[in-house]
Design brief:
The complex is a heterodimer of chains A (125) and B (329). Chain A contains 5 helices and 7 strands; from the N terminus they run αββββαββαααβ. Chain A is of the alpha+beta class. By secondary structure, chain B is of the alpha/beta class. In chain B, the strands form 3 sheets. An 8-stranded parallel beta sheet of chain B has the order 11-10-9-8-5-4-3-12, with helices on one face. The two termini of chain B are 35 Å apart. The chains are: A alpha+beta (125), B alpha/beta (329). Chains A and B meet through β2 and α2 of A and α7 of B.
């Protein structure tokens, strides 16, 4: 059962650049290695993209297993993953532009490779 | 755990755990927990551990000895002589001392403190400009003949000193700083030891924590944190050097690996005779670091790192000048 993010949690995650993601491995119960990725928040929803695109190991696991764990801003959360497509990606691009304006990783994060590997993260319960 | 060979025949786990961070002063905080961590490392397959007479002085070797009491045959212990330690009081008088009598006394003391009758790998901690390398190597050669030392090592030594020592007593390993942000050894040292068949044990493989990505411009290092004295850890250097962390973060993203694992995997990929030496006070970090052995960087990864790293000039020296002056002699 997915739920919405608490306001103060999502604000803290939006401000931090320390989101680590660990989708379940193939057995559906072992967490993968907490991997440090680039995250943004749009309208209170949390989105991430794979810098290395759909070949990123964590991304493959997230698509296959649909669940796992994240850590960010001192929080550890059990979460669900779902792929994202469509117009929302333009707003996600804008959020990356705002959050990572000075980063050399901005261009790849709004490029087609990462765009094709966009995932929405929602908390369980 | 995977094994690697240093020198001609010294086989050790492909990663080594150093005890220096458990106490460079005489009192060791959390000593029982650190002993437990050292033992746990053996349970997890590691067999190569590092200490030195000067850590404490003396108390760090005593702790390592206590940790491995009853399991001496399961571990390979490296220790070091060469700083000017008063052999009666154990006070570090400052500076180096590799006079033959000092080496003998230090090694005898190390054997007692470690509770063993042999040292697997005995390093000269820093070159002593006042004692010819041939004399140092000669004493170690005698200690090897007596069975008290199995292998000879050097640390932060220059190429000339390595050659002079190696001609008298073959050197098994060189312990020097080498990592993605300290690549100086690539110029002269690595070609030299490759030619001579000497292994490399890089210390600070994670850049004293910087390459883990957990230090940023807002990190406040406490006054008693040694890193506060290191130019590379000034606030503006940390900010400038963050590009290197971003680089390993992006490679780690592909492999589902942490920055620390990528930094270690990069070292392991450089030469098959490199055994990175890391320190940690936490089991969780230990497990993360040994996870690097499961990360295999591809040729494309290595090229990407090489190309990107070449664009990033690391800002700030790796040590304060007084300490740096002891290296490369």
């Amino acid at each position: 059962m997915s739920a919405a993010w608490q306001r103060e949690e999502i604000d803290a995650i939006a401000a931090a650049d320390d989101l680590h993601i660990a989708p379940f491995r193939d057995d559906g119960k072992t967490y993968g290695t907490l991997t440090w990725i680039w995250s943004v928040v749009v309208d209170g929803d949390l989105y991430v993209r794979a810098y290395n695109g759909t070949n990123s190991r964590w991304h493959k696991s997230a698509i296959a297993q649909k669940a796992g764990r994240i850590t960010s801003a001192g929080l550890t959360k059990e979460v669900s993953f779902e792929p994202v497509d469509g117009d929302i990606n333009k707003r996600i691009d804008d959020a990356y532009r705002a959050k990572y304006a000075s980063s050399q990783y901005l261009a790849p994060m709004i490029g087609t490779r990462a765009q094709a590997a966009t995932i929405k993260i929602t908390p369980k319960n | 755990m995977k094994k690697r060979k240093l020198g001609q025949d010294f086989e050790v786990s492909a990663l080594s755990l150093g005890a220096m961070g458990y106490g460079k002063a005489r009192d060791i905080p959390d000593r029982p927990e650190m002993i437990e961590l050292l033992r746990k490392a053996v349970d997890l397959g590691m067999d190569f551990f590092d200490t030195a007479e000067v850590y404490g002085p003396w108390t760090n070797e005593e702790m390592v000895g206590e940790a491995f009491a009853g399991m001496r045959d399961k571990v390979k212990i490296a220790t070091k002589f060469g700083w000017d330690i008063d052999q009666t009081t154990g006070e570090h008088r400052g500076g180096v001392n590799s006079k033959p009598a000092q080496i003998r006394s230090a090694v005898e003391g190390s054997l007692k403190r470690l509770g063993t009758d042999y040292i697997d790998l005995c390093y000269q901690h820093r070159v002593d400009p006042d004692v010819p390398m041939e004399d140092v190597a000669g004493v170690v050669k005698d200690l090897i003949a007596e069975g008290k030392v199995l292998h000879f090592g050097m640390s932060e030594a220059g190429a000339k000193s390595i050659r002079r020592a190696h001609a008298v007593q073959p050197v098994t390993a060189l312990q020097s700083e080498y990592s993605l942000w300290t690549r100086d050894p690539e110029q002269e040292i690595i070609p030299t030891i490759e030619e001579l068949g000497i292994g490399l044990v890089p210390f600070s493989p994670l850049g004293k924590g910087f390459l883990t990505g957990k230090i940023n411009a807002s990190t406040q290092l406490s006054e008693n944190d040694f890193r506060a004295q290191i130019p590379r850890f000034s606030a503006d250097a940390i900010e400038a050097n963050q590009a290197l962390v971003d680089l390993i973060r992006s490679v780690g993203e592909r492999h589902e690996a942490t920055p620390a694992q990528i930094a270690l995997a990069w070292l392991l990929a450089q030469k098959p005779w490199i055994v990175p030496l890391f320190g940690t006070r936490k089991l969780e970090r230990f497990e993360e670091n040994i996870g690097a052995l499961d990360v295999t960087l591809t040729a494309a990864d290595l090229t990407e790192i090489e190309t990107a790293a070449a664009q990033i000039g690391v800002k700030g020296a790796r040590y304060p000048d007084a300490i740096l002056a002891r290296s490369g002699l």
